[in-house]
Amino acid sequence: MNQTSRASSAADGKTEIRKTTCYMCACRCGIDVHIEEGKVRYIEGNRDHPINKGVLCAKGSAGIMQHYSPARLKKPLLRTGERGSGEFKEIEWEEALALATDWLGEVRRTDPRKLAFFTGRDQSQSMTGWWAQQYGTPNYAAHGGFCSVNMAAAGIYTMGGAFWEFGAPDWDRTELFMIFGVAEDHDSNPIKMGLGKLKERGVKVIGVNPVRTGYNAIADEWLGITPGTDGLLILALVHELMRTGKIDVDYLIRYTNAPWLVIDDPDGAAHGLFARDEEGTPLVAERTSGKPLPSSTPGIKPALKGRFELPDGRYGIPVFELLAQKYLDPEYAPSAVAERTGIAADTIIRIAGEIAEAAFEREVIIKQPWTDMKGERHERMIGRPVAFHAMRGISAHSNGFQTCRALHLLQILVGSIDCPGGFRFKPPYPRPVAGQPRPHGGACADTALAGPHLGYPRGPEDLLLEADGETAQRIDKAFSWDAPLSAHGMMHMVISNAHARDPYGIDVLFMYMANMAWNSSMNTTSVMDMLTDKDDKGDYVIPKIIYSDAYSSEMVAFADLILPDTTYLERHDCISLLDRPISEPEALCDSIRWPVVEPDRDVRGFQSVLLDLGARLELPGMVTEDGSPVYKDYADYIVNHQRKPGVGPLSGWRGEDGDQTGRGKPNPDQLKRYIENGGFSQVHVPAEAHYFKHANRAWSDWAIEKGLQDGPVENIFQLYLEPLRKFQLAAEGKIKPMPPEHHRARIKSCFDPLPTWYAPFADDGLDDNAYPLHAITQRPAAMYHSWGSQNAWLRQIHGENALYVPGDVCDSQGLVNGDWALVSSQSGEIRVRIARMDAVNGSTLWTWNAIGKRAGAWALDTDAPEATRGFLLNHLIDELLPPKGDGRRWANSDPITGQAAWFDLRVAIRRDPDQTTEQSMPNANAQTSPVEPPPKNVRFGSEAAK
Ligand code: SF4
What we know:
Blueprint: H1 3-11, E1 16-21, E2 30-36, E3 39-45, H2 58-61, H3 63-67, E4 77-79, E5 88-90, H4 93-110, E6 115-119, H5 125-135, E7 140-141, H6 149-159, E8 167-169, E9 176-180, H7 188-201, E10 204-208, H8 214-217, E11 221-223, H9 230-243, H10 249-255, E12 261-264, E13 283-285, E14 292-294, E15 308-309, E16 315-318, H11 319-327, H12 334-341, H13 345-361, E17 364-366, E18 370-371, E19 377-378, E20 381-383, E21 386-390, H14 392-395, H15 400-413, E22 423-425, H16 494-500, E23 508-512, H17 524-532, E24 544-549, E25 561-564, E26 573-575, E27 587-593, H18 606-616, H19 634-640, H20 670-676, E28 680-684, H21 697-705, H22 722-731, H23 741-750, E29 773-778, H24 785-788, E30 803-806, H25 807-813, E31 820-824, E32 829-837, E33 844-848, H26 865-868, E34 906-911
Parallel strand pairs: 6-7, 6-23, 9-10, 9-21, 10-11, 23-24, 24-25, 29-33, 30-32
Antiparallel strand pairs: 1-2, 2-3, 4-5, 4-25, 8-22, 12-16, 13-14, 15-16, 17-20, 18-19, 26-27, 27-28, 29-34, 31-32, 31-34
Iron/sulfur cluster binds near residues 27, 28, 59, 60 and 188.
């Protein structure tokens, strides 16, 4: 049934169906919202939607309870009590906006750095980032730095895309699927549908995760790996594949930098960089003569092994030779990694064999001619049908960037990137670093930044440092020596750095949808102290806090001014190709949200509020010459904003007549056309461009036509990552700028240009006997962060969380199901209820993420089980590592990207002698709720009137 017929048949009765996009997690499925008498009555999946094809999960269905949540904020609020008390008075929007304009205007006129503007699980980052750029503060990012930036950055730097919104397994053709470190996460319904396809076809699924829940529970084989050792396992697989010669050499020569020559000149300033000709083209050695020639030489057959004299007398070694030397080393042999990973050597050897068998014995051939970027015509598309997927589990470690790179190395070695049966890029990806911006900083009063905040540094020269070459420009210290490739910023460091006034103090902290006073921060108790701490004069150390959210979260109590947001059913939004699109491998897709119901409270969509503030502040691009607002609201922006001529937030129905896709003038009817089409636009990729997008001329031409790129972009997969070597050279004192002395050893050891593994930093100097166990969280299928655990329906699935403890650990500690236990780390201690479980790595404890709540928040009863028996592991995790005797506290983050190392946590557990108290600890005082107490029963629709 098509869109129109479904809509009209439903409209026959009392119910009208309005089609929009779910926001109950990050997956962004299409939904049919049934409206009766202006109320939401029912939500189901949109069967025509490219993402979910009608599938809806428990969270999506429960959107109705999100929309009618008693925790919804109702009006702008101004703090009246002490910060943190939760005491506010309601004010009118005009007063709220005037106050915010006053605070923000003063900062912009004097020192825009004094504004830190950070957004949480924001799905409008292309707009919020643009706003911050026009404002001129260098301090903007969303939540990626504490989520999965390692995954995104490693993928972009290696091959121009990663998992989730960047790409997906070829579910219909793969013959073996491995999933690493994924709870029920992000690309939610498509993964479930894909796994269903694999099960129907009898394709083997291997799950690698310390915990056997979610997807791992239905895996045919589960590897209960020790946290933080995924990179070792992957490189042992690489070792085996290389040892047995099961790699796709032709693929490596065609699509990767495997043949490029790396300068071998140990005393020189270019040692380890690529040898290049005068035009900057990398050199390769011609196989028979050994003569160095540009890699672009037509028809060249390059050598993969050897050492070759360069025109200037130095020598060069092919990347592949370095790769073989590194990974054939016995340190990566399965037997050498078995104990540390917890995976037996013969299992690793067998799985390497299964990967090789699927890739090379069961190749997939599609009779689709295509032409590569060099102009060579191919009659068929040949695929290596092994697919991988990974997410936060392997990336939220201090070694996560290199681990994610290792996984991409494995994929590339067997030739399974963007080929039939392998991993497939989703438009607009691939987007290699060559087509990505550099980060922009610098800040001048009353001036916009010269470009976007977030980008991909090519070397130390792109860092955002002050003139001394050491001090970070940004409050989170992203793109500094602390975290040079922090492509998503480091939101988790903002409050602690602002509190420490390091590198400087700020005046206004402005946040959106980020529960930093609770489950989104490490070291939660200390963060609450930082937000309320006062200086010698009695002023708050962080002077002003503006916060926008739809709900009365824990963070609300710590703000001075609250700008209440709408629910996702009351707003305009766009899921944009400029941001995080919803494309599928064979279709370019984006979508919208629109107000399927009108707000019944005095709330406004945050993005519209931001544009209003931008106009009041007279930010460039937001006011006309006569000072009036350029955009009436966010809907107006979505339709009329152009990031470059003809390219705006939405790709569908562009041009004055709405007959263009990707490029075209703004179309005043664009939103109407999206609504008529079910809330999304979908344009199919030509068959010739379905695979090998990284090297496919038809793809390149189509991507240019659709406005995804402005011209051809070379995408050679970077097995050897030269930017990392540049940082090493700087740390060796050979190129400028150079890092401060205390950073050098770490950069030299961790910034290996070939994927590598090092032990998580939290293990360094740790007394293994004192903290013998690992502790991690998993995301439950039924919840998305803190939103879900206040939802009246979803609370019935997970109203509290237990700490799951392996059977042997229970036995050694005398713990039985339901006992209360004390869990300690180097940072603190918590009291939790435990549950025995054997489907878990034997040295790992785990719990569900973000279920524990602070009493008084989210309009829950103060004795709600989430507050009395629920808990957070966050209290045990510090954003800084313990002192190591060098006079410094190092960040508990990946040293390359700054990603928060949530899963490096080491703990001990013991039975609490007190088994009578039914209360998890720490137990923060109840907050005063800024919203009314909850009703006894939550009803909706016509039930609400009874
Ligand atoms: S997977 Fe996420 S976006 Fe899709 S229906 Fe469920 S909650 Fe909504």
